[in-house]
Amino acid sequence: MQKPTRSIVDKLQRPLRDLRISVTDQCNFRCRYCMPEEIFGSDYKFLPKEKLLTFEELTRLTRIFVSLGVEKVRITGGEPLMRRDLPTFIHMISKVGRVKDIAMTTNGSLLAKHAKALKEAGLHRVTVSLDSLDDDRFGQMNGRGFKVSHVLEGIEAAAAAGLQIKVNMVVQKGTNDQDVLPMARYFREKGHILRFIEYMDVGNSNGWRLDQVLPSRDIVERIHREMPLEPVGPNHYGEVASRYRYLEGKGEIGLISSVTQAFCSTCTRVRLSAEGKMYSCLFASAGTDLRAPLREGKSDPEIRELITEFWRHRTDRYSEERLSNTPEITKKKKVEMSHIGG
Ligand SMILES: Nc1nc2c(ncn2[C@@H]2O[C@H](COP(=O)(O)OP(=O)(O)OP(=O)(O)O)[C@@H](O)[C@H]2O)c(=O)[nH]1
Ligand SMILES: C[S@@+](CC[C@H](N)C(=O)[O-])C[C@H]1O[C@@H](n2cnc3c(N)ncnc32)[C@H](O)[C@@H]1O
Ligand code: SF4
Ligand code: SF4
């Protein structure tokens, strides 16, 4: 697969191609692998409104990122649909030229209400996170007892609105690995691409252990025994998921194997937190502030220069390093997933 050429490149020759924007650090779920209730409890201090970048600030930054090579924008969070008037922001992004793909990652709980407005505003795709079809297990995993039917209704509404859909399932051995086959069967039947994500050691609060990771190759084997699969090539340079298609009939799945088969060598992703910090890796300890330069009146060329320097110095390859030094590296201080959006 060819690298995009128009973009700036980092120290490892990786182009800047994807911008992932977290629009809020708040969420109505408390997934144990992301925002465990005992840490993100009622006294947890989320960002106050004045610290969040406004839609105008986010759009201005997006335009600058696009001028440096970004073609793909993903809206995430926290739960992005908890940010008020999100369709207004989607509409603003859709007017920034040269963005080929505008997607959103959501837990789906509020999607039924907003799907139509999001599509009309210019959203192309949604990725809905769902870890089980069993209400008890799902309720436990989301930490708030939310029902599977809420999310499935969101998916139906998104499909009816004409949005392209993918479903993401984080697989945790001993917690929801019994759901791999039921989920594969269900979403194959529905015609949506299901992607299995290896449970990751993001942040410092989820108590991650390597023995809770179900390797992607085991998932493929389990599904292949019942519904034969074959690998297919990536859709584009740096695609995160490895794709497999069902040999009989239609459909495909994806495997996101950040733990057992790291994909840092083609990582083209920059992340922006809701308060305007830019991160060069999902596992970064600190971000580079863009809010102060924006609010101090820096010009577009000045901000462009800041981002260019940041990307030119980038050397991150956390998941590859984890493969060779798991015990040491996982102790490092890392930003929380709910802060930068996964
Ligand atoms: N380690 C690591 N994991 C990632 C990275 N990007 C995504 N992931 C993981 O993969 C999951 C799925 O990411 P998505 O946002 O759905 O993937 P995507 O590549 O943007 O999706 P498509 O554009 O549909 O291919 C995330 O929630 C993370 O768990 C990354 O850069 N590093
Ligand atoms: C942080 S959430 C933000 C968007 C939205 N709230 C959602 O859940 O889709 C983005 C993605 O990160 C994934 N995620 C969170 N913690 C993870 C972990 N420890 N390992 C792997 N994926 C994780 C979630 O399953 C979700 O698909
Ligand atoms: S994974 Fe998404 S839905 Fe779950 S707690 Fe994190 S931000 Fe919320
Ligand atoms: S671990 Fe960091 S460098 Fe590697 S793929 Fe993920 S975000 Fe990119």
UniProtKB/TrEMBL annotation:
Positions bound to [4Fe-4S] cluster 2: C264, C267, C281
GO biological process, one term: Mo-molybdopterin cofactor biosynthetic process
Region (Disordered): 322-342
Free-text cofactor note: Binds 2 [4Fe-4S] clusters. Binds 1 [4Fe-4S] cluster coordinated with 3 cysteines and an exchangeable S-adenosyl-L-methionine and 1 [4Fe-4S] cluster coordinated with 3 cysteines and the GTP-derived substrate.
Pfam families the UniProt entry points to: Mob_synth_C, Radical_SAM
GO molecular-function terms, A-Z: 4 iron, 4 sulfur cluster binding; cyclic pyranopterin monophosphate synthase activity; GTP 3',8'-cyclase activity; GTP binding; metal ion binding; S-adenosyl-L-methionine binding
Known cofactor(s): [4Fe-4S] cluster
Segments forming domain Radical SAM core: 11-230
Binding-site residues for [4Fe-4S] cluster 1, renumbered to this chain: C27, C31, C34
Residues engaged in binding S-adenosyl-L-methionine: Y33, G78, S129, M200
PROSITE patterns on file: MOAA_NIFB_PQQE (PS01305), RADICAL_SAM (PS51918)
Documented EC number(s): 4.1.99.22
UniProt keyword terms in alphabetical order: 4Fe-4S, GTP-binding, Iron, Iron-sulfur, Lyase, Metal-binding, Molybdenum cofactor biosynthesis, Nucleotide-binding, S-adenosyl-L-methionine
Uppermost EC category: lyase
SUPFAM superfamilies: Radical SAM enzymes
Pathway: Cofactor biosynthesis; molybdopterin biosynthesis
Reaction equation(s) it catalyzes: GTP + AH2 + S-adenosyl-L-methionine = (8S)-3',8-cyclo-7,8-dihydroguanosine 5'-triphosphate + 5'-deoxyadenosine + L-methionine + A + H(+)
NCBIfam families: moaA
Identification of the protein by name: GTP 3',8-cyclase
Gene name, Swiss-Prot/TrEMBL: moaA
